[in-house]
Amino acid sequence: MFVIFTHLADWLVFTQLGLAHGTKFSDALHFFVEDVSKIFVLLTVIIFVVGMLRTLMTPERLRHALAGRRRGPAYGLAGLLGAVTPFCSCSAVPLFIGLLEAGVPMGVTMTFLITSPMVNEVAVVMLLALLGWKLTALYFGTGMVVGIVGGLLIDALGLERYVEDYVWKIRMGQVAELAADLSLKGRMAYGWLQVREILGRVWLYVLIGIGVGAGLHGYVPADFFLRHAGPDNPFAVPLAVLAGVPLYSNAAGMIPIVEALLGKGLPVGTVLALMMSVTALSLPEMMILRKVLKLPMLAFFAAYLAIAFMVVGYLFNFILG
User: Fold this and answer.
1) CB < 8 Å & 24+ apart, contacts of 99-103
2) 96, 167 in Cβ contact below 8 A?
């Protein structure tokens, strides 16, 4: 299916531009053209479909789905909804307030907030297309486990006392319906609106991510990452987690970097730890959450994620090594 994008890159780089095969520049440019075309087509299709589905799953309905349930099933449902709903980090604060206001326990709310950035629906589909179902299943499953265990732990320790006081006083108003016209035509119109809006926000991150991936693919020696972050380096996974903290990208922007790193022979667990750190533990994400969480809770949240990512990284490297 995706061979059409390889042919497109061949035609543009080697036929139209006349570049020679096997040079660093041509390899990097070929990677860039192939991934730009492939990823933007995938993003358009995925965002359009998810946009149509969002007319059925609004934040208001999400709150009602989680509120009032017994805590056991609620954790699993919160993790699943976090994995399949397209709410980004910019939605963290209003969703956090709205879920607590609706009576959702703190631990269940945090399960949703942990899982949502970790298990991104765009990343799931793109990992499936680029890297296969086994890695995708591992990515999805570990994200769910990390989210649910984190929520259970936060609830058991009673850390709701470290939520900013004003959060408990806010009454989140009625959330406007995402699409007034719920006919098929109206849902499709909203889907295309989401494509324009979301691509308008993420296209630069995607291009930067692909550019970094292309540079890694074309110019970095194949043994560079193996020397510094290969399976023989016991500290490669924590270094990958630390490297992701100052970075900021959505999951879609990380996919080409992940693909390039895997192509260089970097262990899957190390690459996955980097991806999770960038999408769920970045400084911008922490700054957003600081608006609603006191420092002890924020520190616990960040430390838990960092430890979980390292455990996942080492586990994947052990299983797949």
Assistant:
1) 99/62, 99/63, 99/66, 99/67, 100/163, 100/167, 100/168, 101/63, 101/170, 101/171, 101/172, 102/63, 102/64, 102/66, 102/67, 103/67, 103/68
2) yes
pTM: 0.66
Task: Kindly compute the dihedral angle of the four CA atoms of residues 97, 145, 240, 306, in this order, to the nearest 10 degrees.
Answer: 50
- Does residue 34 contact residue 5 with C-beta atoms inside 8 Å? yes
Residue type, 228: H
Per-residue pLDDT tens digits for 16-31? 888 888 888 888 888 8
Q: Domains of the chain: which residue ranges?
A: 1-54+181-202, 55-178+220-320
Distance CA 26, CA 222 (A): 16
How many other C-beta atoms can be found within 10 angstroms of the C-beta atom of residue 96?
A: 24
Identify the burial level of 127 via C-beta atoms within 10 angstroms of its C-beta, where 0-12 means exposed, 13-18 middle and 19 or more buried.
Answer: buried
Helix (H) or strand (E) run with residue 229 in it: helix 224-229
> Which tokens go with 64?
């009602």
How does DSSP classify residue 266? -
Residue 152: HSE in the Cβ half-sphere, 13 Å Cα cutoff: 11
C-alpha 35/C-alpha 278 separation (Å) is 20
How many Å apart are CA 110 and CA 104, to the nearest integer? Answer: 10
Predicted local distance difference test score (pLDDT) of residue 238: 92
3-class DSSP state of 23: coil
Name the most confidently modeled range: 113-117, 209-213, 223-227, 307-311. 307-311
Amino acid found at 3: V
Residue 277 to residues 71, 73, 305, Cα–Cα distance (Å)? 28, 27, 8
